[in-house]
């Protein structure tokens, strides 16, 4: 009754709930995409729900994506939401523990190291890591077997990312202490830390110890590299060691160390969740896995050579696999912003007050039949021009040619594409190209070595685990593998 009587006509409709503070926390938390879709049907594209006592306004669809992700800096703020979670994990003075203008400069420093030139070096590094992983892993001994694929993909992701982005010296430490330390850091990302960030949670001691230890490992490495006067390996650490903020201030070592942690953590969950989904999708469609193998044989020859960056461009289906998997399984389902001043919603009488948090969910438009025919179907071929399931996205929204620089390089000005797995606007992902190179290389190498199928031979796909901040396949996600004869 209260929810009906005290309804403010200028505020978005409030999702009905029985209990004041809990609100819709449980239905949202169990399956966010379903929650968004069901409530969009009931209340329209813009609605509010109670998340742990906080009025949270969801605005889905392309206009919602634009409204939130391209919000002006005086209207919306990301760091206010994320800092409680990220600062203890990354460390001080980077990403969300500094003014936004500083983050923009830091993103620019990191992006400089993510060029085509760098990717040419990364592909052989990544493919070697994948080969050597499958060779030494006891789970892939023999001709065939079954395996819970997600933890394997998590390991492959950390080995490939750390080696490519941070160099061999850091990579080698992942066989020893670093893997455990990163695991402890990771506990800082559990949702309970988000809810109870003020509480002395027992595992936070280990998180804080891990943060200090990992930061010291990076700082010692920086010092050694500086003493050696190194100029050879132009990886991200090297670029940061040679970067200056506006005004000529060099990036301090502790900030370089903290950015190294942030970079690895930012990519780890999203990339490893995506590669796990790809492997599970391939196991459910062995015919597509065969097409991928054939694509490589046709494009690169039967005697498959070492993979190069240029080779990846010759494998359009391999590229489409990543694109289509991110359409259905984007690991970041909710992107949040604090509201800094009342925000009128264009074309409506609605105004979002500063007491609300805004939530963008680009996954909703990515699975909207209006843009993607048969949206729930995983069909990598839909990205081919003449496919019956090709997306109905006009050129102007698909490839917005108007570009803007928020301080870290040019990005598309509009956020109105229905397909935004890497976000948009000033907080847009800088790791998109790296993630694509990494994922495409991992998939191509895996397809060369193995045939996958579901253990029961069906086309079924496992459900999604939303219990962590990044969504991923439920575990155990067991698939059957068989080595190709030629290996
Ligand atoms: C930001 C997705 C991989 C580094 C973002 C955002 C999304 C995203 C949606 C926007 C978050 C927001 O607006 O609040 C993904 C996906 C990935 C991926 C789906 C892989 C499949 C990576 C990798 C790196 C990375 C590999 C590092 C090499 C970053 C950074 C930001 C970001 C630094 C900027 C945060 C900000 O400005 O607030 N990513 N990402 N990401 N990502 Fe990624």
What does this structure look like?
The radius of gyration is 23 Å and the shape is globular. Strand 9 and strand 10 form a beta hairpin. The chain has 20 helices and 14 strands. Helix 14 crosses helix 20. With 487 residues, it is of the alpha+beta class. The termini are far apart. Bound molecules: protoporphyrin IX containing FE (HEM). Protoporphyrin IX containing FE (HEM) binds next to helix 6, helix 14 and helix 20.
Specify Rg, calculated over alpha carbons. Answer: 23 Å
Tally the helices: what do you get? 20
Proportion of strand residues: 5-15%
Q: Strand arrangement, largest sheet?
A: 1-2-8-5-3
Category from helices, strands and their pairing: alpha+beta
Name the average pLDDT: 93
Helix content: 40-55%
Family: Belongs to the cytochrome P450 family.
Binding site for heme: 429
Protein name: Cytochrome P450
Subcellular location: Endoplasmic reticulum membrane
Main attributes of the structure:
alpha+beta, 20 helices, binds protoporphyrin IX containing FE, 487 residues, 5-stranded mixed beta sheet, 3-stranded antiparallel beta sheet, globular
């Amino acid at each position: 009754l209260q929810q009906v009587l005290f309804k403010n006509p200028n505020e978005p409709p409030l999702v009905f709930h029985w209990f004041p503070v809990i609100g819709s926390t449980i239905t949202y938390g169990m399956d966010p995409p379903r929650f968004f879709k069901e409530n969009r049907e009931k209340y329209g594209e813009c609605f509010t729900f109670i998340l742990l006592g906080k009025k949270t306004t969801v605005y889905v669809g392309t206009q919602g994506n634009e409204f939130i992700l391209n919000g002006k800096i005086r209207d919306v703020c990301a760091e206010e939401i994320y800092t409680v979670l990220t600062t203890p994990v990354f460390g001080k003075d980077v990403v969300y523990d500094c003014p936004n203008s500083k983050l923009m400069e830091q993103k620019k420093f990191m992006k400089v190291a993510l060029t085509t030139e760098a990717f040419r070096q990364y592909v052989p590094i990544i493919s070697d890591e994948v080969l050597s992983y499958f060779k030494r892993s006891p789970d892939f001994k023999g001709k065939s077997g079954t395996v819970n694929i997600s933890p394997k993909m998590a390991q492959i992701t950390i080995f490939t990312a750390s080696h490519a982005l941070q160099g061999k010296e850091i990579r080698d430490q992942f066989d020893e202490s670093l893997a455990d330390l990163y695991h402890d850091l990771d506990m800082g990302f559990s949702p309970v830390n988000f809810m109870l960030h003020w509480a002395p949670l027992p595992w936070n001691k280990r998180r804080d110890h891990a943060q200090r230890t990992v930061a010291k490992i990076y700082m010692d490495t920086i010092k050694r590299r500086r003493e050696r006067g190194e100029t050879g390996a132009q990886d991200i650490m090297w670029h940061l060691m040679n970067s200056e903020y506006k005004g000529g201030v060099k990036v301090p070592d502790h900030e370089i160390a903290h950015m190294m942690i942030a970079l690895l953590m930012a990519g780890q969950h999203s990339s490893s969740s995506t590669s796990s989904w790809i492997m599970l999708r391939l196991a459910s469609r062995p015919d597509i896995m065969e097409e991928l193998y054939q694509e490589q044989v046709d494009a690169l020859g039967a005697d498959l050579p070492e993979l190069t960056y240029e080779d990846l461009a010759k494998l359009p289906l391999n590229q489409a696999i990543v694109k289509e998997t991110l359409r259905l399984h984007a690991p970041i389902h909710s992107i949040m912003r604090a509201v800094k001043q009342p925000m009128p919603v264009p074309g409506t009488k609605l105004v979002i007050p500063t007491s609300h948090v805004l939530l963008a969910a680009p996954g909703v438009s990515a699975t909207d039949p209006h843009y993607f025919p048969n949206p729930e179907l995983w069909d990598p071929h839909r990205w081919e021009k003449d496919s019956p399931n090709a997306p109905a996205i006009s050129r102007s929204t698909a490839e917005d040619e108007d570009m803007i620089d928020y301080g870290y390089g040019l990005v598309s000005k509009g956020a109105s594409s229905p397909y935004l797995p890497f976000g948009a606007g000033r907080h847009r992902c800088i790791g998109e190209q790296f993630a694509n190179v990494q994922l495409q290389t991992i998939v191509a190498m895996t397809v060369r070595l193995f045939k996958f199928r579901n253990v029961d031979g069906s086309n079924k796909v496992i459900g999604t685990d939303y219990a962590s901040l990044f969504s991923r396949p439920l575990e155990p996600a067991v698939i059957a593998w068989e080595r190709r004869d030629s290996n």
